[in-house]
Amino acid sequence: ADVVLYVNIRRKKIMIGDPVEINPSVGHGMKIMTVDEWSSRWKRNDDFPDCLNCGSKNTKEHHFNQTWCRGKKKFESEILCLDCHMFSWRSYR
User: Fold this and answer.
1) Per-position b or e across 37-51, b if 16+ CB within 10 A of its CB
2) Rounded mean pLDDT of 46-63?
3) 54: three-class secondary structure by DSSP
């Protein structure tokens, strides 16, 4: 629960242009990051690249999870649209 709260606060700060703590692997301190800079290490989801809000294909995947239970596969994907800055969530089998 604490990780989700941290990610949501960080996301909101980046969207409004407030400084956020940067990843220790990159450096240290606080930085004002653009959405493009924040999502630069994310990859595209080539199976579902469309933004559900505006239809753009200029998206990056923020979250991906696969689970197998008794032979049934389940996938979850959350992508960020770099045009409208909205997140799209998909869950599929």
Assistant:
1) ebbeebeebeebeeb
2) 92
3) coil
> And the tokens for 91?
């869950």
SS3 52: coil
Is residue 20 within 8 Å of residue 30, measured between CB atoms?
Answer: yes
Task: Supply the Cα-derived Rg of the chain in whole angstroms.
Answer: 15
Q: Phi and psi for 43 in degrees, rounded to 5? A: -110, 165
Q: Any idea what DSSP says for residue 20?
A: E
Contact 73, 93 (CB under 8 A): yes
Residue 55 pLDDT grade (very low, low, confident, very high; cuts 50, 70, 90)? very high
Give dist(CA 13, CA 29) in Å, integer.
Answer: 15
- Tokens encoding 59: 């998206």
